[in-house]
TrEMBL record:
InterPro entries: LysR_HTH_N (IPR000847), LysR_subst-bd (IPR005119), WH-like_DNA-bd_sf (IPR036388), WH_DNA-bd_sf (IPR036390)
Protein keywords: DNA-binding, Transcription, Transcription regulation
Claim: Amino-acid biosynthesis is one of the keywords in the record: no
Domain HTH lysR-type: 22-79
Family listed: Belongs to the LysR transcriptional regulatory family.
Lineage: Bacteria, Bacillati, Actinomycetota, Actinomycetes, Kitasatosporales
Record PROSITE patterns: HTH_LYSR (PS50931)
Cross-referenced Gene3D superfamilies: Periplasmic binding protein-like II, Winged helix-like DNA-binding domain superfamily/Winged helix DNA-binding domain
SUPFAM superfamilies in the cross-refs: Periplasmic binding protein-like II (SSF53850), Winged helix' DNA-binding domain (SSF46785)
Protein name: LysR family transcriptional regulator
Region (Disordered): 300-319
Superkingdom field: Bacteria
């Protein structure tokens, strides 16, 4: 049996396996030749031309250093070496099919569920609409929601406990990539009976900084924006862990609160709360989708991200 120069090189230690073993396409072609007894029929089955099939068989023979197929006007048949190689090829192709089936199962498992972590304002006032739109596109995707402040969202993502997150703070937490999906405005609100609701001249930023306020807890995006705008930590009258609790306290007349404009539309319309302008301060923030750095969202997470950009529910980011 003659060995080609290529076959000797193929067995040289240190040559990568991919350079020593025929590719899957060539092995599938060989199996088709064995089954159909014709190189032309095998070429049609695998979707290539007969000259391309002949070239692929010759390349495989050069790589292995043995003749695999005897060609004649009556058709093509395997050599003894070709029959042996075909048996080996069948095992490789079956293993590749098993590998592909397993990978597909992993994709199906990934695509059958979506874990979302969202800060409270987004979870309460924006996410439900996005999830309804996602359900229309992917009715078989099960979604779980983990709600918390922006710091908790970052922790969930970094621990691998969520596939996509949404935060409201001024900056992107370390270890995460992000995309701005919308802009939000914070406003100061009080009950109608509060002295600020009856003032002709609104309070200034310094007065707001000196006044005890009903606030979200530290680590929330709302608190981060307010502290940064004031240039120092705001003074808490109460620190509460949900937007709903902050609103209820403000409606009761306990004191002024700082909340997302998204959260108080109904209360402002019914006059249970009134908006109080503050001089010398801008309370605006970006709303961001976040995910672990270097891992772009895929599957349902990617689709949800696209929905937030097409239907943000609030003012879209400029540019």
């Amino acid at each position: 049996m003659a060995w080609s120069e290529g076959s000797a090189q193929a067995r040289t230690p240190g040559v990568p396996l991919a350079h020593r073993v025929p590719d899957l396409g060539a092995l599938e072609l060989l199996l088709a030749v064995a089954r159909l007894g014709s190189l032309g029929a095998a070429a049609r089955e695998v979707g290539i031309t007969q000259p391309a099939a002949s070239s692929r068989i010759r390349s495989m023979e050069r790589l292995l250093g043995v003749a695999l197929v005897d060609r004649s006007p009556r058709g093509s048949r395997l050599t003894d070496a070709g029959a042996l190689v075909t048996d080996w090829a069948r095992r490789v192709v079956e293993a590749a099919e098993a590998f592909d089936a397993g990978a597909q199962a992993l994709r199906d498992r990934r695509d059958s569920r979506l874990r979302v972590a969202a800060s409270m304002t987004i979870a309460e006032y924006l996410l439900p609409g996005w999830l309804i739109a996602l359900r229309a596109r992917r009715p078989d995707t099960a979604v779980s929601l983990l709600a918390g402040n922006s710091a908790a969202v970052a922790a969930r993502l970094l621990a691998g406990e969520a596939d996509l997150g949404f935060v409201e703070g001024l900056s992107v937490p370390s270890g995460l990539d992000s995309a701005v999906i919308a802009r939000d405005r914070l406003i100061v609100v009080t009950a109608p009976g509060h002295p600020w609701a009856r003032r002709r001249r609104p309070p200034a930023a310094a007065e707001l900084a000196d006044t005890p306020l009903i606030l979200r807890e530290e680590g929330s995006g709302t608190r981060q924006v307010l502290d940064a705008a004031l240039g120092r930590p705001a003074r808490p009258l109460f620190e509460l862990s949900s937007t709903t609790a902050v609103k209820a306290s403000a409606v009761s007349g306990a004191g002024p609160a700082v909340l997302s404009e998204l959260a108080v539309g109904e209360e402002l319309a019914s006059r249970r709360l009134v908006s109080v302008p503050v001089e010398g301060i801008v309370l605006a923030r970006d709303l961001r989708a976040v995910w672990p750095a270097g891992h772009r969202p895929a599957g349902p997470a990617r689709e949800l991200l696209s929905l937030t950009r097409s239907r943000p529910g609030t003012e879209p980011p400029a540019g």
